[in-house]
User: Fold these one by one.
Assistant:
Number 1:
Amino acid sequence: MPDIVARPRAGSLLKLAVPYIILAVLAAWALFPLAWMIFSSLKSYAELYRFPPSFSLRDLGFHNYRDVIVSTPFLSFLKSSTIVALASTILGTTIAAMAAYVLARRLVRGSGALTKLLLIAYIFPPILVAIPLFLVVNHVGLANTQAGLVLVHIAYTFPFSTWMLISFFRRVPVELEEAARIDGASNLTMFFRITLPLVAPGLVTVAVFAFISSWNEFLLSLIILGAGDQRTLSVGLYSLVGGEFAQWGTAMAATTLAIIPTLLLFLAVQNRMAAGLTAGAVKG
Amino acid sequence: MTTRLFAAFDRHFQLLFILPGLLCLVGIVAYPVVWNLVAAFTNANLIYEGWRFTGLDNFRLVLADAEFVTSTFRTLVWTFVSVVLQLFVGLVAALCLEKVTAGRSLLRMALIVPWAFPAIIMAFAWRYMLDASYGVANYFMMILGLIGMPHAWLGETGTAMAALIAMNVWFGFPFMMVAMIAGLQTIPRELYEAARMDGASPWQEFLYVTLPGLKGIVATLATLRTIWIFNNFEFPYLTTGGGPIDATTTLPIYAFKVGWTQYELGRMAAVSVLMLAILTVTTVLYLRLLREEDDA
């Protein structure tokens, strides 16, 4: 008799537990590389090259971090990445916001075609774009410079930034702008005073996206900056530990330091970024 | 004077607003495409100045190269398997997340972390984990009894592509998951209630309510991800460099080697044009398949 009562309860308990078990396994898989990277960055040289690997928490230290900062150009890479990412984010988001407003309100002829072109840009292989752009940048004397890479990154993030911002601008009621115009406001006043503040959340999302894209971008950075002394983190880390005989301690410390800004930014805006990304995807 | 200048500026502000954007589009789309379409028919080279038209020579050379053919096949496998597995893991994670209540946002946050990894950092983290001599992956798999002795997962021709795909699925499933959660929320609750009243089992509910409700978003995700992975250069380049013995040389790596390592810009342009052709055909096929399903 008790069996009959117990069985369905055990069944529903199991039903409740299964999603948790699956999610726990997936979360462990998702987090392990990050955890292992941080853990390894704190290990001594001997511990890093031991098999089976050591899980001991003793003798951990920051010596690999000291090595990275003292004996590699890490800080120079970091500075270069910060300059390139900040400059291309500020300029790129401004350009994208101006274009997105014009396209969202269809203020120029061919607005529809231009909006489609933004999506088509997505299909072009970066490798097809990289070398022609390098030739132009080289021709104007900006190869191996941060300025050259900033220009390329602005163009690189433009289609997606603009596409995301268009949907934000479309949500601003036209009536607000018409009211401002009746009150005698000029086009520019109206744009900066009325419209732009209303899409501020969108601007932040797009700016963070642009910053992360620029910070993480590799191929264009490699081709534009090569082995020059203005290398950014993604290219610099590659040349630093790219060889066969990688120094794993330094590598893990350098990559841990490099992921901190993007990881924090990403987790801060992930909700809004996901909403922005899927708004377009669900609609299309 | 300044007010009149401002008035003129204000009247035509839309042109000034769109101009920098147009320049970006020319730079990132129009110019590279035209450049490749022209260069593909020339002997352009990164070292020697000047070039002349050589007709279809580049295409003949590329299509006759066995490595190009195997790279194409390899790229299709890499793209297709990665997309399918990313969609599958993303769907499982999304469905599970919808089912749980306690700790949901924390779990979601944990599952999203791979998405934040730059390619270079992911490549190093995975290379160290998969290392033949001191990799932690070998250790875990030996404990679980899956393998008897350590393997060089990225260094053996038989396993390099599989290891690369595992890394790609790890990186790509969070985006799929997030998009599918959004998709799940667009399915009307009434449909589930109606199914339950008709006595549908949970499996039938999934098959006849959830899956059809997700079709639109899955199609969009599959198309976007196919394009993205097909074009992806960083993952194989930074993780294996295309090796061992070309086992992970996909088309972007092949094109890069021809153009940037062998300096043959014309031939690289021909490869790029062929890549674009394959991608366009695939995208059109996808879209047509979708439309037919909608009609049915």
Note: The two ends of chain B are 65 Å apart (CA to CA).
Number 2:
Amino acid sequence: MSANILTVDDSASIRLTTKVTLTNAGYSVTEAVNGAEGLAAAKSNSFDLIVTDLNMPVMDGLTMIEELRKLPAQAGVPIIFLTTESDADLKARAKAAGATGWLTKPFDPENLVKIVKKVLGR
Amino acid sequence: MSTLDPVAVFRMEAAECLEAIEAGLLDLTHQLDDKDLVDAVFRGLHTLKGSGAMFGFEALAAFTHHCETAFDRVRKGEVGATSELVAAVLAAQDHMRALVDQPDADHGDTGHKLLAQLQAAVGAKAAAPATATAAVAAPVQEASAKKAKNGWRIRFRLPANSMANGTNPLGLLDELRDLGECTVRADTSAIPPLDELTPTELYISWDVTLMSEQDRSAIDDVFIFVLDDMELSVEEIDGAAAAMAALVEAKPAPAAAASVSSPPVPVVPVQEFRPVEAVPVKREAPAAIQAKAAENVRVPAERLDELMDRVGELVIAQSRLSQLASASTDIALRSVSEEIERLSGELRDTMMVLRMVPVATLFSRFRRLVHDLARETGKAIELVMEGESTEVDKTVIERLADPLVHLVRNSIDHGLEVPADRLAAGKAKAGTITLSARQAGGEVIISIKDDGRGINRERVRAKAESSGLIHPGQPLSDPELLQLIFAPGFSTAAAITNLSGRGVGMDVVKKTVEELRGAIDIVSMPGQGSEVSLRIPLTLAIIDGLLVRVGSGRYVIPLAAVEECLELSLEEDLRSRGRSFISLRDSLVPFLRLRDLFRTGTKPDVHQKVVVISTGTERVGLVVDQIIGDHQTVIKSMSKLHNDVATFSGATILGDGSVALILDIGHLVAAGQQQEAQLRAAG
């Protein structure tokens, strides 16, 4: 079953890698370049999973996650954040904001697919 | 190069990122306390580090990490942004660029030196470069690698909000089942009465017997995202005990617990908690209005050039078609021809717009150059930019970059005085360099102006005489004298400084501009400064032209330069003979008889026409025999043999396959003005 995934990242190269990886794994991917766009996209479409960066201009990932979780329609939608921080504090903040899981950059494409499968429950 | 190569995309992105960082840093030098700028620079560094590590640019990631750390401290308010820090990161930024361009090259000690500078600037203890690698490395696996003899007994309770936050307990159970044979029992005793139940909360806990020799870490991996917040107990069991345990534990709450043996299906109560079913929220229908995204497509320049060529060929073919159609009486053919003419015109216009980029992309790099030169020379410099939104063909922009760098260096090195001299001359301490761009007809005029000391005519003359460019005492007009600085090998700098003399001379600047079919003008007032203006055609490929006939030859005049067309009556022609002026609404406009200029040796037509062309301020009339009409022209450059033919800027192929030459407006106007000046001098 193909799932709809929204990826939010200000880096075009990461977006491309993510998209290529997920598309090859059979998912359909929608892209947004910052939290505000991601939020708007999530409001107008329904996604099965959101993968987001944390540091972004306009609206960062933490704020986006908080805003998403305020929306009843977004209850239960898994959110994976990509982070370069090994910083436990940031991880805790993202989780408190309502993120489901994380993936540390740099990541292997297989790792991303593994995590996506995990949170989607296959 | 495929556009879908992430490394190539990364390189482009890194270049943009570095530009943004640089712009942020330069702005920051003026407003050190601007938090938004600090954030923007931090984000840029952060992205560069993260993406760099993703795509194998380890050295870049490690190096950038230090700068990012420094800015993170500023961002968190631990240290203030100082001009030393900004300068150190600016310098470091060049190193990052090198690391992007040549990730494998040996960059020697540059990185260490820059890091030392950076550390001195933030006043931190020098961090060992090794920490950087650690920062981008994968997180350490902490879980024990201990293996189970026969299996595990796992009891877990997830945080109440974990389903709302996207964790699906069924998925976790499935993952446990992947590890081995599972017996899953749900403890539903904590489910409250219906009226107290919050549908998004998770009340169930699970007891799982897993028969598997997997590591304990494999179990932790299953719960990795919730591990910190959940209750989890994992005990090692052996096979016999496991079976017993499942039975014994089933007893205390037999009514609520459901025991399912492997391979189990999800127990009923759990299923009710699937978020989508339990929370019957009306989702907004997928809106027709998609999120408004800046949807840009990156296309390699050579593909655009290819497309341009095709459009050019289409334009030529279309022009043949119109010629054939106009000679035909077939109405259907003529209407198709008109349709195609309209379409190819639109296609051409679209193509043009695709290639246009604002000059801002060119100008922005001068902020850094001026900043560096100011530091190097000790001169105070104010950079003013005007008309940055003016759009020019991308190829033109790229070709102009180096000449402009040279001109700006020249202005700063030769033009601007040191602060003391400026004060003595009654000027402001800081010199001003003005970069401006504006569109005039079919040309863009880009000028570099300084308010320095102006070009020293005596020095130019002395230098030109000593190098044999002119005879001693040879009379020259002021513009001619100033043009001397474009002669190869000409430099008035007493000593070749670090700034000038980098292998690019004014002759190279001139050559580049002429290759673009442009021209250079210099205005210089002693003591007040100089202005160098580059007049460049808007585009290099296709122009709208006015096709005219002179004698038996056909020529194209760029339409953008045409002001109006007049009839030159026979009597006015006779009357003006020898004067070569026509009066045009109370002003006298000089004109050139192209028939004489091209020595056609034919008799003039009875009704000659004058095409008045201009380059902004100056006008000149061109006398032609016949105006044939508007014509879309694909410019083909002429061969090297025709390099010194200044009257023509190129050639084009007409619909019938014949060739027409394209007139060089700048040159003709100059010739007309010169003629006017001579006539005026002759009285």
Note: Chain A has one domain: 4-120.
Number 3:
Amino acid sequence: MSTRTLVSPAALARPRGRAVYWTVFTAVVVLFAVAFLFPVYWMVTGAMKSPDEVAQTPPTLVPKHWHSSGYTDAWDLMQLPQHLWNTVVQAAGAWLFQLVFCTAAAYALSKLKPAFGKVILGGILATLMVPAQALVVPKYLTVADLPLIHTSLLNDPLAIWLPAVANAFNLYLLKRFFDQIPRDVLEAAEIDGAGRLRTLWSIVLPMSRPVLGVVSIFALVAVWQDFLWPLMVFSDTGKQPISVALVQLSQNIQLTVLIAAMVIASIPMVALFLVFQRHIIAGISAGSTKG
Amino acid sequence: MTKTAARPPAEAIAVHPVQAPPPAGGRGRRRLADQARAYGFLLGGLVCFALFSWYPAIRAVVIAFQKYTPGSSPEWVGTANFTRVLHDPEFTAAWRNTLTFTLLALVIGFAIPFLLALVLNELRHAKAFFRVVVYLPVMIPPVVSALLWKWFYDPGAGLANEALRFAHLPTSNWSNGADTALVSLVIVATWANMGGTVLIYLAALQSIPGELYEAAELDGASLLQRVRHVTIPQTRFVILMLMLLQIIATMQVFTEPFVITGGGPENATVTVLYLIYKYAFLYNDFGGACALSVMLLVLLGAFSALYLRLTRSGEDDA
């Protein structure tokens, strides 16, 4: 793909144009390496320095002696397996709950014509206008004492899972996708004797793989990156996800150990990104220009 | 679109000549069963929205006018929460900091990604590399980004001052100085979040028809003139969208001040959301927290409404 951009191909082909191009290119590569890759390098190697070396000025670019004890200490002392497991449980549950309930609701709103469907959809879309963080306090109070049944979900992964379902953006994304599935396809299935659930499972879901992928990634990343909400609902240290645990433990732990824990906490999402980068980047680029 | 217009084939099959037309009562029951089934599918989502979106939104407004501590029965206090919160010296600091943060984020976190996207769009090599690398910080958990930069800003062994020394520039207090703390936090937020913005700008730049640049060049427009008269007008809509999104996002900033500065030094980085958190969990004053939440909600709700309106009208144009 080579469409015309700001600078014309002819200008680039001239010797002077080519010199400027390669200068700019090199500058951008260096800038990107310094700004985005170097901090990551600094973190990964910083954890392998000795505690004295990491605190010395001027800092060393490469560890004098490579220690892996930063990583093993972080794993053991900070109970990282426990906190990583908590995060995995919270993220996986939020993903599953969102997929099941948002898909079902979007399918109903798109294809089953419930009475007051438009009102319900309006109510759901209206929540897009409410900034999420402005509601954390009343949401916390609701979770701490659920109306009617009067139970508390604090320190329970359900406190992450259930509110995650109330995601108007994902639900709307799914509904919009389902709207595009022709009615004839669903009616053909109906004539063949498929019930609503069977139609959803065997016809709609297989056709919706792209949008389900996007929703899945959004759901996972959102839980993994969240901080304020889990900070509020998990006061029990043993239940905290890695983001909250890192901050709570950062006060009284050796710097190299903390840095190692930071690296470990970053690995899952960075790995997910590197594996699915094509899809993630395409999703961000496509979703935005269309609004 | 009416319901009947959308489904002629089904209707045609239902009144197939061989079949007797279903009795009216049967149809009504069928419709009722259809409704029940539709609501069965809706139920889970509906309950979650009711509990965790609609109810808290109403409750925020109600509690804002109550004296509320969990466990004891609430007591109506009129506008006392609002007046108390308004007279808190931290209130002014929090709003001033939040607005300054948003403004700085617009200046720093807005110009840089646009320029970066503009340059990246001209590069013909290693495009995939640039896209992946610029988005990498977005995938690092915000808490890790904050802790990482807290370490960079460290007055002793911090990398930030080391870089300044290397360039023979005077060192700074960064997040530890009352006058530099807020800017330091904006730098962290920009670094951590600009990947998405750059990618969106890149997509927008790629959709500009090349003929426009060609025509401008034939008319003798210089590089800067082409940016001003072609690129910016052509991406104006995306620029406006991202600006609104950024205002909405940065006004809810919490993680960076909480992790890096703890609101200090001298309240220089207390933000509105941080203050809400403090009222609820430090002072146990949920009435005050909700009064603050309602203020934030009204202000940001207006921006969100504007954003939604614009994206919807933009969709119609497309």
Note: The first helix of chain A runs from residue 9 to 13.
